[in-house]
Write a structure and sequence with these properties.
single chain; 116 residues; 2 domains
């Protein structure tokens, strides 16, 4: 069986173009996702802190309302911060039912930036 080259070549060219298009669209979506620093819906540690913690701690961590600790003076280790944010302490509420593990981690990292 002999192939008719004047029909076969255009057919293969269209298939190759389709494959290239699929590969390029996949690569461009992957590279776009990796170049985007974060999902726009995802909040930063600062945003989470300001909407949940600043009422008592103040936006700069020094407010101390209702006995809240001055976070600029805090020398708690990472695991201690995570425990307190997650489980609460005294009248501070536990945030582990409201915030995700990742959000708690972001808040912890933001609190560390408030230190002197």
């Amino acid at each position: 069986m002999e192939l008719d080259s004047h029909l076969f070549i255009p057919y293969m060219e269209s298939k190759i173009k389709l494959i290239i298009l699929i590969v390029l669209s996949t690569v461009s979506s992957i590279s776009f996702a990796t170049l985007t620093p974060k999902n726009k819906l995802e909040k930063t540690g600062k945003e989470i802190f300001e909407s949940n913690c600043a009422r008592c701690h103040g936006t700069d961590g020094t407010k101390g309302k209702w006995g809240a600790k001055n976070l600029k003076l805090s020398n708690l280790a990472d695991n201690e911060l995570l425990t307190i944010i997650s489980n609460g302490k005294r009248i501070m509420p536990a945030w582990n039912h409201t915030l995700t593990t990742n959000e708690i981690e972001l808040v912890k990292e933001y609190i560390k930036t408030l230190r002197k």
